[in-house]
Amino acid sequence: MTQELKEEILRYYLLTSELASELLNWIEQHSPQEVSQHFSQPLSKMIVNTPNTLLWVLHYPPLTGNEEQGAIRAAAHEDINLLTILPAANKPGLQVQ
What we know:
Blueprint: H1 3-30, H2 33-36
């Protein structure tokens, strides 16, 4: 791995960690009491000084039309993460419930 790639990965990690922290703070501030009383810890503390964050980027390329009949990329599922951020789609395919 080149030093340039290492630096770029670290920059991405720091930026996404900042975004996660901002979103967790927002959720904590705006969660109804009947929801927030069940938090095991303040959401704003979840990622402070911890290497145990789970940040990943998934890319599902569009189907080409040459796939086998009935082919799917990912069957219906639920995410295990507390937060899932989805960019606005510009192609059909991903369905969110």
